[in-house]
Design brief:
Oligomer: heterodimer
CATH superfamily of chain A: Sodium/glucose cotransporter
Number of domains of chain B: 2
Strand content of chain A: under 5%
Distance between the termini of chain B: 24 Å
Helix content of chain A: over 70%
Largest sheet of chain A: none
Strand order of the largest sheet of chain B: 1-2
CATH architecture of chain A: Up-down Bundle
Radius of gyration of chain A: 22 Å
CATH class of chain A: Mainly Alpha
Structural class of chain B: mainly alpha
Radius of gyration of chain B: 24 Å
């Protein structure tokens, strides 16, 4: 995995300049639509509930598309296809879990979180943990863990926005970061998650359209999937083996981290609070899975397509795997398609950044004050202020040190997974889980992830092939959760409020 | 609220579906943990380590889905078959990818455009569960996941909670009221 970032953000790569008239016009139109949606949403945001959970009033289709949009970052468009180009089908184990993760999330989390929202008026993920274990300490610790992960995600997404905007408009990386964060901040601070959701709908639609068109183009250009496979099999048959050039352990490890770990990703889980009518959850997993399938077609199509086109000489060999998508778009596809995809990449990074800004602001203005017993009075005003601070901090961090940003981007996904999955996903479905088990599990995930990622990043320690810090931390967090809950099992029943118990039994 | 909700812990007893799912989840995670631990051996990763993940992952995913889908004493009802199918598909596809010999080459027979083992992974793991699980979720939603009656029960609790919070806040702001 050296040299690749996981789906926390776009890679820290220099995209080639795409600043041609068609690309600039489509890019400018994209930003105009974003601004128009934001102005509309800002006029409808009046309370903290509007700001953080869209007043729990989003319809099924809008929520589904928005959720698809925040579930994929720029990685799906740039880093992912590059990873396939480099290691073959083994890279698919990052996205294959999408076949089960959405419905798994629906069964394990969606109903219970949405009902807890109804019973307790909850608006954040740490809220749910606090209510489940009747514990401000567990709520606060979960909030701290999420904040650490969000710092990483925000910095990588800020840098990614700068890279993409510089590529589209040729304004330089520094200006690209400030423009991207400025626009995202404008709609995050004014319209909160309501602006975010409806921008996500536009951005998700754009991503899906761009992905499908590129996939169809690649198939046509390569003589169908069979033609592409024949070309690759003639030169590099291992590429199309079940693990590609990865070891089986490494590929399976990806599947584990990105399937089970999906239950702890706040940008997706937080959405469960927002659905207007909880009964509409019925079609949510099916629609979201189909939407994700469309968006991820580009990941697979470009990855294998560019490999074949380079092998048969229709494309120049790439300077680095990360150039797979840009190289295809700027050398082979019609320029209007390239323009759509570049705007789609900007959309992916901005969508993810908006979601994390909002979740981070909720943690600072809602969860941490509750954990310290000092809830703030005007959460909407504080939410807007903290949103601005988070965005500026992320932009400055992204400007200052590419190396540090690369490090921060590595552990976001794994940190959310290891700290939240056992306490939240298992805890909401197992009445034997205890407060001590949850706190120990969250702390284990936080400490193990940070320690192992730091050690690996500074080359103090090298993992065996196929083992990642995220996977080890998540397994450790699970085992600690079960063990401590078992050791403290006498307290389990007394820590459960009757209304929470009812929600867990339904 | 006490009329609407039952006492903590009572429903947990005798809930065999959840107990079995929890045992399976712990077993799956333990298998994965052992697989990872084996990778740290000085002699290199033993050949059996990926097999533990190939079995542990489907078991743990299936178990946590069952844990989430189980409803009190009713268990998972008609969802048994979809869950069994998906766990089996994942386990068979992973194990087949590990066990089948590497025969990919220029003359390989293609299945929907991919060599056999790749097709098994992409179509088996990546597409087959989509055909089954979300559809099963939708078809069993009212009976197994959430009915209008369930929702109304929880909303009634929400109204009680809000009324209590409001009364508490009023009492705090006006001490005479609380006396």
């Amino acid at each position: 995995m050296t040299g690749y970032s996981l789906p926390g953000g776009l890679l820290q790569v220099a995209l080639p300049s795409a600043a041609q008239p068609a690309v600039i016009i489509v890019g400018a139109l994209y930003f105009a639509v974003i601004i128009a949606i934001s102005v509309w949403a800002a006029r409808r945001t009046r309370t903290a509930s509007d700001f953080f959970v869209a007043g729990k009033g989003i319809g099924l289709i809008a929520l589904t598309i928005a959720s698809v949009s925040v579930s994929v970052s720029g990685f799906a468009f740039i880093g992912g296809p590059g990873f396939i180009y480099a290691v073959g089908l083994g890279a698919m184990y990052i996205v294959l879990p999408a076949a089960v993760t959405n419905v798994m999330g629906a069964w394990v989390l969606a109903k219970r979180m949405r009902l807890l929202g109804e019973a307790r008026n909850l608006i954040t993920i740490p809220d749910a943990i606090g209510a489940r274990y009747r514990s401000p300490a567990a709520q606060g610790l979960a909030a701290v863990a999420m904040l650490v992960g969000i710092v990483g995600y925000m910095a990588t997404n800020a840098l990614a926005m700068g890279v993409v905007i510089n590529s589209i408009f040729g304004v330089g990386l520094a200006w690209g970061i400030w423009i991207g964060m400025g626009v995202t901040l404008a709609y995050s601070a004014s319209g909160g998650i309501l602006a975010g959701i409806y921008n996500d709908v536009f951005q998700g639609t754009l991503m899906a359209v761009a992905s499908v068109l590129v996939f169809l183009f690649v198939l046509g250009y390569g003589g169908g999937l069979g033609g592409i496979s024949r070309t690759i099999l003639a030169h590099d048959p291992t590429f199309l083996g079940p693990w590609g050039h990865l070891t089986p352990l490494a590929a399976l490890s990806f599947f584990f981290v990105f399937s089970m770990g999906s239950l702890g990703q706040p940008q997706a889980v937080h959405k469960y609070y927002m659905l207007r009518d909880p009964l509409q959850l019925k079609w949510y997993p099916l629609l979201k899975t189909l939407g994700l399938l469309l968006v991820l077609l580009l990941y697979f199509g470009v990855g294998v397509g560019v490999k074949a086109f380079v092998l048969n000489g229709r494309l120049q060999p790439l300077a680095s795997p990360d150039q797979a998508t840009p190289s295809l778009l700027l050398n082979v596809t019609p320029i209007i398609l390239a323009a759509l995809v570049f705007s789609g990449i900007a959309a992916a990074t901005m969508s993810a950044a908006n979601s994390f800004i909002n979740i981070g602001a909720a943690i600072v203005t809602h969860d941490l004050p509750i954990a310290f017993g000092r809830p703030v009075k005007n959460e909407l005003r504080w939410g807007r202020s903290v949103t601005i601070l988070i965005a500026i901090a992320a932009a400055i961090t992204a400007q200052r040190s590419g190396t540090m940003v690369a490090f921060l981007g590595i552990f976001g996904w794994g940190l959310f997974a290891s700290t939240l999955v056992p306490a939240l996903a298992v805890g909401l479905n197992w009445q034997g889980a205890t407060r001590a088990g949850a706190i120990a599990s969250i702390a284990t995930g936080l400490v193990v992830t940070l320690a192992l990622e730091s050690a690996a990043y500074h080359k103090v320690f090298t993992f065996p092939a196929g083992v990642t810090a995220s996977a080890v931390a998540m397994v450790a967090s699970f085992l600690v959760f079960f063990l401590v809950s078992w050791l403290t099992r006498q307290s389990a029943a007394s820590e459960l409020d009757p209304d929470v118990q009812l929600v867990m039994e339904l | 609220m006490s009329e609407l909700a039952t006492r903590p812990g009572t429903a947990a007893r005798g809930d065999t579906t959840r107990s079995a799912a929890l045992a399976a989840l712990i077993s799956g995670v333990l298998a994965i943990a052992i697989g990872y631990a084996a990778a740290f051996w000085r002699e290199g990763t033993p050949a059996w380590a990926p097999w533990l993940l190939a079995l542990g992952i489907p078991i743990s995913l299936g178990a946590i889905m069952i844990l989430g889908a189980a409803r009190g004493q009713r268990g998972i009802g008609p969802l048994k078959l979809p869950f069994l199918f998906v766990v089996a598909v994942l386990a068979i596809a992973f194990c087949a990818a590990l066990a089948l010999p590497s025969t990919e080459g220029p003359l390989s027979k293609l299945w929907l455009g991919l060599p056999a083992r790749a097709a098994l992974v992409i179509y088996g793991i990546g597409l087959l569960p989509i055909v089954v699980l979300p559809v099963a979720y939708a078809l069993t939603f009212e009976t197994q996941t959430l009915s209008a009656e369930d929702l109304e029960r929880v909303r009634a609790i929400g109204r009680e909670n809000r009324a209590r919070s409001t009364a508490l806040a009023n009492a705090k702001s006006d001490p005479q009221l609380s006396e």
